[in-house]
Design a protein that fits this description.
The protein is of the alpha/beta class and 297 residues long. The protein contains 13 helices and ten strands. Its EC number is 2.4.1.182.
């Protein structure tokens, strides 16, 4: 695919090349066209996560790209020291409407992941959460937003649950239930950031296999999984990951989530103070389109 695309770019001699995300694909593609003497502008949208691991990529990208549009404001320093221009366009959570003043109902959101292996690996903890709810708050409604390819397996997992459980793939219903949810149990990832924007108190969990965890501990520089915690360099959003995700610890953290309203309020207030590192006062699309237009003038 890289060879095919590079031939297309060279033969058509485009005025501008824009690559999006996928740094391990885009870097060798741009390296190839630069070797083929393509000397026009190249923009990368979404920076490689050099702040987490493989920081040397920042210098490599600076040699090939003209600019990177970054989602997080703190990313600028990693690239600017090598002379690579950045534009902070912000994260797409900008488009999530913040309607936290709507009265919350007795709902909790369960987000077990968007990949089958995540759901299989983590659902035992969602089962434990259900069992705790059965003791502490049996009248609560569990809401599980998911994707079509996961709906059936999740339905099987919750088939014998005695608490009312809503599983849906309908985006309109998902937004409706988010608005009235008091808490969220979330698989680490973009979903956690979306929950933060919606100002729903949450507990984040994730688990890698043991060997992968050992390898990543050697190479990964960040202490946290949640981006809010990474930016703050402290635990703002409670998270349990990998070997720290044990049944005992999970029950303690989960019970705290559904009973300690003061801690939940502090979590939301603290998140607010870091959202300006993640989004701007303009839509990412508007900022990106304006910058691209400047290149094409």
């Amino acid at each position: 695919m890289i060879i095919f695309l590079s031939k297309k770019i060279i033969s058509n001699n485009y005025d501008l090349v824009i690559t999006i995300d996928s740094p391990d694909f885009n870097y060798p593609l741009i390296k190839r066209i630069r070797k083929k003497k393509y000397n026009k502008k190249v923009i990368q949208i979404v920076a490689p996560t050099v702040w987490a691991w493989r920081e040397y990529r920042a210098k490599k990208f600076a040699k090939l790209f003209d600019e990177i549009f970054i989602l997080f404001n703190f990313e600028n320093s990693y690239f600017s020291k090598f002379g690579l221009k950045t534009t902070f366009i912000g994260h797409p959570i900008f488009y999530i409407e913040n309607r936290n003043k709507i009265k919350k109902d007795n709902y909790i959101a369960f987000l077990p992941g968007s990949r089958l292996n995540e759901v299989k690996k983590l659902f035992s903890f969602f089962q434990i959460a259900y069992e705790q709810l059965l003791i502490i708050n049996p009248d609560i409604t569990i809401f599980i937003p998911t994707l079509p390819h996961l709906e059936k397996i999740i339905s099987v997992y919750v088939d014998r649950w005695k608490i009312k459980t809503i599983i849906t793939t309908d985006n309109i219903l998902i937004e409706k239930y988010y608005l009235i949810s008091k808490f969220a149990l979330v698989c680490s990832g973009t979903a956690s950031l979306e929950i933060a924007k919606r100002k729903i108190p949450q507990l984040v969990i994730y688990k890698l296999n043991f060997l992968t965890e050992i390898i990543l501990k050697i190479f990964v520089k960040v202490r946290y999984a949640n981006i809010i915690n990474i930016i703050a360099n402290k635990m703002i959003v409670p998270e349990l990951t990998n070997s720290s995700l044990t049944k005992k610890k999970f029950i303690k953290y989960f019970v705290n989530l559904i009973t300690d309203f003061d801690s939940n309020e502090k979590q939301i207030i603290a998140i607010d103070s870091y959202l300006n590192q993640i989004e701007t006062n303009q839509p990412p699309f508007t900022i990106a389109a304006k910058k691209i237009d400047e290149y094409l003038q």
